[in-house]
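Figure caption, in words: inputs first, then the predicted bound structure.
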Amino acid sequence: MKYKAPRGTQDILPPQAVEWQAFEDSTRRILSRYGYREIRTPIFESKELFLRTVGQDTDIVQKEMYCFRDRKDREFALRPEGTASVIRSYIENALWVERPFQKLYYLGPMFRYDRPQKGRYRQFHQVGAEAVGSLSPLVDAEVIALMGELVKAAGVKKTILKLNSLGDKESRRAYIPALREYFADKEKELCPDCQRRLETNPLRILDCKVPSCGDLARNIPPTEDWLSKESREHYAAVQEWLGIIGVAFEKDKRLVRGLDYYTRTTFEYHHGGLGATVALGGGGRYDSLVAECGGPDTPAIGFSLGTERVLLAASQDRETGGMGDSRTRELAIYLAWLGEEALATAFKLAFSLRPLIRVEMELESRSLKAQFRQADKLNVSHVLILGQDELARNEVQIKEMATGRQENVRIGDLEERIKAGIRNFTIDRIPEKTQ
Ligand code: HAM
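Bound structure (histidyl-adenosine monophosphate present):
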């Protein structure tokens, strides 16, 4: 019998995992510099949570959720996104008591029954950030800039930032009839889902994945024309602040995003190499969601990036220099030994050096030549050789792989040598462009 990973999922094998770790590390570092703290929520939640927040008429809820019943017949869904869970947790744990303005981030897998293709998977990963508790347009500008910084740090060079505003509840209420009127004479050409949406939730027509519906929506009235005075001022201030911090954007009147909870600002980052319908990430304000879920009236804004898409875009941009070029060669040791007497000393030595450095060790008693081949494969910077002669003198021989330079060092001096010598071991030999 042959087993395969489920359709739309993928294994992240060790060489790719290195890239994932680098992305996750830089992401965590940047987020914490902006004052965001990690929150970890369950991978499944009650199905009802997503129906109420993401929205009954969205593609996510209608077509893409992985739902299941447990043994007590309770209905759950694998999380299709992170915002609903964060807000559920914010309310359940009364996080506003600890801090009135909470800045939270999360990293992890999400699940959507999408048609698998480049950049679209059934299990994918998001990095998300949610700033809960402020209506200031400064927060919008900061969140949008932060998202851009994460993408840039991953090595993605050319991005397009799309920006729109849906307005507050009042503005949306005024806009919906205008949208219905626009689609009235096009109803028959819409897909069956959108014909229903025209009645229940016409905004959802704008992110329908059926191409003909996208074409029909091309000339919709701009949401901006229906903004209330307050929302218009807010949108203008967001644009102004983005200008002040030098973040370039394009206004996109059709950017309503595929989830129901958005109010006012919406935004998406795109990359030329992924195609127009596949965003690197997106987000927006959701000023009513906390109250709608039973919490205090609390404005909020956030975004999520798709990790697979960001890494895909970064690899496309790599020829012109991205994260891939800046990776430094790893300092690591391969411990080669000859003769059973050397084995015990080598085995103990490996344990004592591992707090300082990666140590691989020969476990099979092979020839020195075979051990060097293995060391080369494992891409270590140095081989330590422990044979009978070295053992008798309480020494090891160090060989630097890049240069072939060798020298003998007393075992007792090794730790200090590694600690003090980490720089002059290799870094000074790495060509400048790879540092
Ligand atoms: P979203 O636009 O549904 O927003 O997803 C955000 C990002 O997740 C997408 O731009 C994309 O990079 C990635 N993504 C979504 N679906 C897939 C898929 N099937 N395969 C690969 N990547 C995918 C949200 O999820 C909101 N929670 C964002 C947000 C946070 N808004 C406010 N706060």
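DSSP finds 17 helices and 16 strands in the chain.
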